Amino acid sequence: MRKMVDVVLIFILCTVFACNANAQYFGSEKIPKEIIEPWIEDSIQQYQAVYKFGFSEGECEMTIIINDDLIIAQTSEYEWSNEFNRFVSTYSNFSNVKIEGNKFFSDQTDGEFVFIENDNGSTAYLLIYDPWTYEFHEGGELGKIMGDSQELYCNGKFPQASLTLLSDSDLEKLTLHELKVMRNEIFARYSYKFKLGGEMDKYFKSQDWYLPYSDSANLTELEIRNIALIKKAESKKKE
């Protein structure tokens, strides 16, 4: 009798995992594998976008930024802050990101860019094989593209410092003060807390988008490179 129970239990578990393997999830909704098609583009630039994963308190966004051979993949997740009585963002960066064809690769997880057909046409998604959201789904999780592909948005006067690799020519016409604001604005977008009462603290607290709550900033490789270039331009202005 015990052996029969064990066999039945193994059969049930295998059936559950087999079903999960044939379905992916968008939020809490199961998506049949049969209606998912590869999203193929001539240029990987078309995959630059923000993708929304999860649902409710587990919702998060993944931003993919493509600058030639440098590909950035960063997630922003939300957690409740009693201090501010609202959700605040925490950021994580993926390492060694590559896109080959419609396939996504990184040290943390892999995936692929796909379309899902429905009555209203097709919608673009990023399918992640090993989701990082707290609801782990055996078949993978789908992140829906938000807005138009390639159109990314950042708060601040100089959003390009977080979205594209800058060049010397981009900076040469800016004043020393503008360069300083551009550099520190990168940190401010991560809600970094500047020295209380200092110039940057006062400046960013006058901006309605700024909410200081973090002692650190999880910078992308693109932002790190741009900060180094901005500092170089600042040094030249001081000579």
UniProtKB/TrEMBL annotation:
One family name in Pfam for this protein: YARHG
Listed InterPro entries: YARHG_dom, YARHG_sf
Range of residues in the leader sequence: 1-23
Gene3D superfamilies listed in its UniProt record: 1.20.58.1690
Keyword Nuclease: no
UniProt feature coiled coil, ranges: none
SMART domains registered for this protein in UniProt: YARHG
Residues annotated as domain YARHG: 154-235
Keywords attached to this entry: Signal
Name of the protein: YARHG domain-containing protein
Species of origin: Aureibacter tunicatorum
